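Appendix C: a fully annotated inverse folding record. The material below is reproduced so that readers can follow the format used throughout the book. The structure is listed first as tokens, followed by the designed sequence.
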């Protein structure tokens, strides 16, 4: 009976842990193609002094979702990804600037102060589908533009970088 209870307890712990979003310190080195590399003043790394995230690692982090229209697409779309707030918290970042860079080396600066609950996210799904490079993917920094007029400004639009593949946190 004791052996049976230990087996059940172990299985329960595995189920509970697998349902819990990963923290950065739990992220192993990527097994698949790296979608996002994060460097700079970060507390968590998994490959040398970087945090490299493949699709599975990104999707294992606590997900955020919202629906919004954008100035680059028709109609309202559903976005899913990792909120900037969750990502910065996992990395131990509380201040500074995020330099977000796309696959074509285009870069923008995003203040860490943008990393607030209900704010922007690194989206990996649009309308429940992976985004292709030709459709602004595979990663796109989006904000809930429809939720607040403060998100419908040229400054915020300029921070909405698509084809994102790198973040660097600087002070």
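Designed amino acids, in order:
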């Amino acid at each position: 009976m004791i052996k049976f209870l230990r087996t059940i307890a172990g299985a329960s712990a595995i189920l509970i842990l697998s349902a819990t979003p990963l923290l950065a310190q739990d992220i192993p080195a990527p097994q698949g193609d790296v979608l996002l590399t994060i460097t700079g003043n970060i507390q968590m790394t998994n490959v040398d002094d970087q945090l490299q995230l493949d699709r599975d690692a990104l999707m294992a982090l606590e997900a955020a979702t919202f629906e919004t229209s954008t100035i680059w697409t028709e109609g309202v779309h559903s976005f899913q990804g990792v909120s900037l707030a969750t990502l910065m918290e996992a990395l131990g970042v509380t201040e500074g600037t995020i330099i977000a860079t796309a696959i074509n080396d285009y870069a923008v600066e995003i203040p860490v102060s943008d990393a607030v609950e209900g704010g922007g996210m690194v989206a990996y799904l649009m309308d429940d589908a992976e985004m292709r490079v030709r459709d602004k993917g595979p990663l796109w920094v989006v904000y809930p533009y429809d939720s607040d007029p403060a998100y419908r400004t040229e400054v915020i639009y300029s921070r909405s970088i698509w084809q994102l593949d790198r973040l660097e946190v600087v002070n």
